[in-house]
């Protein structure tokens, strides 16, 4: 029985570790999307600077660039929002896996404590029996 609990606990820990790793990957994707959005904002600032310095040369091209940046930013915002929703939902899965692992840990701890209490009870019974035999010998009853 002890082996069963240890195997079950190992499986629950493995599941939790796997879910945590997957959550980390999801967070990495989110960070990448945010970095892309920041890079896009920096590119827009650089283009605005260039357009303001040479309005006659770049002015006509800047409008289409700005529209493309706006569309890309909106797409990235959508991807970021979707990834955040996925992460929030997956965090619940991680919490459930943690709860399952803790439940098994507590059950194993309770089982070990019950075994220890039973061993202590048997040992006490043996000591009581030895004490009773010794007392009856000392009283001259045997």
UniProtKB/TrEMBL annotation:
Biased composition (Basic and acidic residues): 112-124
Stretches the record annotates as Disordered: 112-142
Protein name: Uncharacterized protein
């Amino acid at each position: 029985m002890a082996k069963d609990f240890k195997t079950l606990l190992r499986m629950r820990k493995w599941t939790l570790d796997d879910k945590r790793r997957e959550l980390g990957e999801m967070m990495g994707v989110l960070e990448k999307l945010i970095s892309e959005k920041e890079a896009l904002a920096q590119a827009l600032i650089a283009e605005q600077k260039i357009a303001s310095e040479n309005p006659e040369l770049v002015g006509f091209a800047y409008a289409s660039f700005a529209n493309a940046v706006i569309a890309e930013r909106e797409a990235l915002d959508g991807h970021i929002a979707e990834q955040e929703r996925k992460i929030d939902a997956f965090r619940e899965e991680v919490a459930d896996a943690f709860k399952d692992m803790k439940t098994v840990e507590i059950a194993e701890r309770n089982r070990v404590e019950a075994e220890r209490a039973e061993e202590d009870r048997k040992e006490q019974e043996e000591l009581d029996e030895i004490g009773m035999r010794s007392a009856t010998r000392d009283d001259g009853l045997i």
